[in-house]
Automatic annotation (TrEMBL), chain A:
<comment type="function">
    <text>The alpha subunit is responsible for the aldol cleavage of indoleglycerol phosphate to indole and glyceraldehyde 3-phosphate.</text>
</comment>
<dbReference type="GO" id="GO:0004834">
    <property type="term" value="F:tryptophan synthase activity"/>
</dbReference>
<dbReference type="Pfam" id="PF00290">
    <property type="entry name" value="Trp_syntA"/>
</dbReference>
<dbReference type="InterPro" id="IPR002028">
    <property type="entry name" value="Trp_synthase_suA"/>
</dbReference>
<dbReference type="InterPro" id="IPR013785">
    <property type="entry name" value="Aldolase_TIM"/>
</dbReference>
<comment type="similarity">
    <text>Belongs to the TrpA family.</text>
</comment>
<dbReference type="InterPro" id="IPR018204">
    <property type="entry name" value="Trp_synthase_alpha_AS"/>
</dbReference>
<keyword id="KW-0822">Tryptophan biosynthesis</keyword>
<comment type="subunit">
    <text>Tetramer of two alpha and two beta chains.</text>
</comment>
Automatic annotation (TrEMBL), chain B:
<dbReference type="GO" id="GO:0005737">
    <property type="term" value="C:cytoplasm"/>
</dbReference>
<comment type="similarity">
    <text>Belongs to the TrpB family.</text>
</comment>
<feature type="domain" description="Tryptophan synthase beta chain-like PALP">
    <location>
        <begin position="65"/>
        <end position="389"/>
    </location>
</feature>
<dbReference type="InterPro" id="IPR036052">
    <property type="entry name" value="TrpB-like_PALP_sf"/>
</dbReference>
<keyword id="KW-0822">Tryptophan biosynthesis</keyword>
<dbReference type="InterPro" id="IPR006654">
    <property type="entry name" value="Trp_synth_beta"/>
</dbReference>
<dbReference type="GO" id="GO:0004834">
    <property type="term" value="F:tryptophan synthase activity"/>
</dbReference>
<comment type="function">
    <text>The beta subunit is responsible for the synthesis of L-tryptophan from indole and L-serine.</text>
</comment>
<feature type="modified residue" description="N6-(pyridoxal phosphate)lysine">
    <location>
        <position position="99"/>
    </location>
</feature>
Length: 271, 406
């Protein structure tokens, strides 16, 4: 069983949803980002999503755009993101790690080589924002061959007719983009989620994670209850950004401040 | 008038996945995917509808001002000494560039689809002005995304758009140019899916845009073909156009793709020179990748991060190129060359003085190449160049480059 499937199975036994915190690789530098990654499981992360910086993140709002810019300024490369995961795996063999990014850096690295190296580094799944089902054959053969879950995005604009098509060949979990919009802007209401999630459940047995606009412990608890997991990204990055000095360097204790926020989110999800 | 499209035609693309060879496609977030499919369905239906064609023709004739003339540039021809040079005068369209062709087509489509709000990206502001104009004509609210750097260097067009009732949103992310404006327009579209139509200005973006924009721009080449027959009784030996995203070039080239005797030449922006790395020549200096919904040649670093383009012309300042051009490059049907900022500035002045036409800095790049090409050809040979925009918008920028204070 894959790490992702095992983790969701375990959470099902505990009868609770998962918290999936997000960090942008090398934001604002390698050491801070690595310390944050290492601290996340203890702070209550059930799965971890790592953003791979790209110059043109079309689905992201200003907060994650800025994080990606800081990562790139710090010198992050695709290979360096994989190195982070390899490093993380020396101390944590159980927490699933999912990479989220855009296609071009992966194409540039080589899709086959990327999937092979990612799997070897200990990556469990991929979310590629600009690789819809229609173009998935570009990567799917290699992700499958290397045991990587290819996680699909479902949006409010995905109608019922299209749902099975989008989920065809998906594995790991389903990522529900809960608003029509970019990251870190609007938040879906509980009522909207209560309509949207059963609609997806009718066509898949995979766990469903809710992302985009999940910011507070209450929102995370609601999302994890209605679906199977809550992804929190912009809210954490915003906190990290407040912990940077005028030169953009992390102040001492910055990582702990973000981890405390993850603890609060985790507590709410466990309630 | 056009050569019938046969099995060996180069004019049959894209395939049903929106691909021209390996290029094109639909690389967008799932949120946008249903919208793009909706645009494709609507466009396919419109294309097959005689009423849509009649409506488009009506507005093209009476509002845009087509057909645009074909002009024998006699003094320029004499000055360069060599091939006979003709200009396709698309700068005479309403709003001053070829952009009107595409905007009129797409706005009629948006109306058909029942969309009530229009968004667009713009570089030089020509597409923004054309979009704002059509929105004023049809009473639709319009938001134009424009890089903050471009807002500054194209101030007259910004004011024009505002006069036309459009909201101009300066984009500060990235380098604040066309690429970033396109990112921001896509972000707007994702957030306003229900009522908004994204009117892309070039032959790039996800399928069906490269095909649709090409179709609307092909009126340039179709007219030129007929006019060339009338003027000379034959086709030109070479057709030349400048390329940013590549819409005016695609519009000129497409009707000629199956005419093997016609050399097709696209001129990319060489900026400070290809060797300096500061240019916008994606085919000459880039490699294939995925950006803005399509696979094509891109300026990018070793790790797949997109590089900033550079050109004196805001309209060519884009690190990508339409996917059909990428394919035509690979199969070698079209030759792609480049002209630098300085060459474009020189051609800008030459055209102004010899023909009394102030060209936009974009076609000044095409002309710069024509000044190199014409003297190598015989006087009985013909060059057709698309003069795709007028240069009134550029006089302030040109003055600055020439050290003239206005």
């Amino acid at each position: 069983m894959s790490r992702i499937a095992a983790r969701f199975a375990e959470l099902k036994r505990q009868a609770r949803g998962a918290l999936i915190p997000f960090l942008e690789a090398w934001d604002p530098d390698e050491a801070t980002s690595m310390a944050l990654l290492r601290g996340m499981p203890e702070a209550g992360a059930d799965l971890i999503e790592i953003g791979m910086p790209f110059t043109d993140p079309m689905a992201d709002g200003p907060i994650i755009q800025a994080a990606g810019k800081r990562g790139l300024a710090a010198g992050v490369k695709v290979a360096k993101v994989l190195e982070m995961v390899r490093d993380f795996r020396t101390t944590d063999a159980a927490t699933p790690v999912v990479l989220m990014g855009y296609l071009n850096p992966i194409l540039s690295y080589g899709t086959e080589r990327f999937c092979k190296d990612a799997a070897e580094a200990g990556v469990d799944g991929l979310i590629i924002v600009d690789l819809p089902t229609e173009e998935a054959d570009l990567l799917l053969p290699y992700s499958s061959a290397n045991g990587l879950d290819f996680i699909r995005l479902i949006a409010p604009t995905t109608d019922n007719e299209r749902l099975p098509h989008v989920l065809n060949g998906s594995s790991g979990f389903v990522y529900y983009v809960s608003i029509a919009g970019i990251t870190g802007t609007r938040t879906a209401t509980a009522e909207q989620l209560e309509v949207a999630i059963p609609r997806i459940r009718r066509v898949t047995d995979l766990p469903i994670a809710i992302g985009f606009g999940v910011r507070t412990p209450d929102q995370a608890a609601t999302a994890a209850k209605i679906a199977d997991a809550a992804v929190v990204a912009s809210a954490l990055i915003e906190t990290l950004a407040t912990q940077l000095d005028a030169d953009g360097k992390a102040r001492p204790g910055a990582v702990e401040v973000v981890l405390d926020q993850i603890r609060a989110l985790a507590a709410a999800v466990r309630k | 008038m056009n050569t019938p499209i046969g099995v060996n035609s180069l004019r049959t693309g894209p395939n049903d996945r929106g691909r021209f060879g390996d290029y094109g496609g639909r690389f967008v977030a799932e949120t946008l995917m249903p919208l793009i499919l909706e645009v494709e369905r609507a466009y396919t239906a419109a294309k097959a509808d005689a009423a849509f064609d009649a409506e488009l023709r009506h507005y093209m004739t009476h509002y845009v001002g087509r057909p645009s003339p074909l002009w024998h540039a006699e003094r320029l021809t004499r000055h360069l000494g060599g091939a006979k040079i003709y200009f396709k005068r698309d700068e005479l369209n309403h709003t001053g560039s070829h952009k009107a062709n595409n905007c009129m087509g797409q706005i009629l489509l948006a109306r058909r689809m029942g969309k009530t709000r229009i968004i667009a990206e713009t570089g030089a502001g020509q597409h923004g002005v054309a979009t704002a104009t059509m929105c004023a004509l049809f009473g639709l609210p319009c938001t134009v995304y424009m890089g903050a750097v471009d807002v500054e260097r194209q101030a007259p067009n910004v004011f024009r758009m505002k006069l036309l009732g459009a909201e101009v949103k300066p984009v500060t992310s990235g380098a604040g140019t066309l690429k970033d404006a396109m990112n921001e327009a896509m972000r707007d579209w994702v957030a306003n899916v229900a009522d908004t139509y994204y009117l892309i200005g070039t032959v790039a973006g996800p399928h069906p845009y490269p095909m649709m924009v090409r179709d609307f721009q092909s009126v340039i080449g179709e007219e030129a073909k007929v006019q060339m027959q009338e003027a000379e009784g034959r086709l030109p030996d070479a057709a030349v156009a400048c390329i940013g995203g590549g819409s005016n070039a695609m519009g000129l080239f497409h009707p000629f793709l199956d005419d093997a005797s016609v050399r097709l030449i696209g001129v990319e922006a060489g900026g400070h020179g290809i060797e300096t790395g500061e240019h916008a020549a994606s085919l000459t200096g880039g490699r294939p990748g995925v950006l803005h919904g399509n696979r094509t040649y891109l300026l990018q670093d070793d790790d797949g991060q997109i590089l900033e383009a550079h050109s004196i012309s805001a309209g060519l300042d884009y690190p990508g190129i339409g996917p059909e051009h990428a394919w035509l490059h690979d199969i070698k049907r079209v030759e792609y060359v480049s002209a630098t900022d300085q060459e474009a500035l020189a051609a800008f002045q030459l055209c102004t003085r010899t023909e009394g036409i102030i060209p936009a800095l974009e076609p000044a790049h095409a002309l710069a190449y024509v000044t190199r090409l014409a003297p190598t050809m015989k006087p009985d040979q013909i060059i057709l160049m698309n003069l795709c925009g007028r240069g009134d918008k550029d006089i302030f920028a040109v003055a600055q480059h020439l050290g003239v204070k206005l």
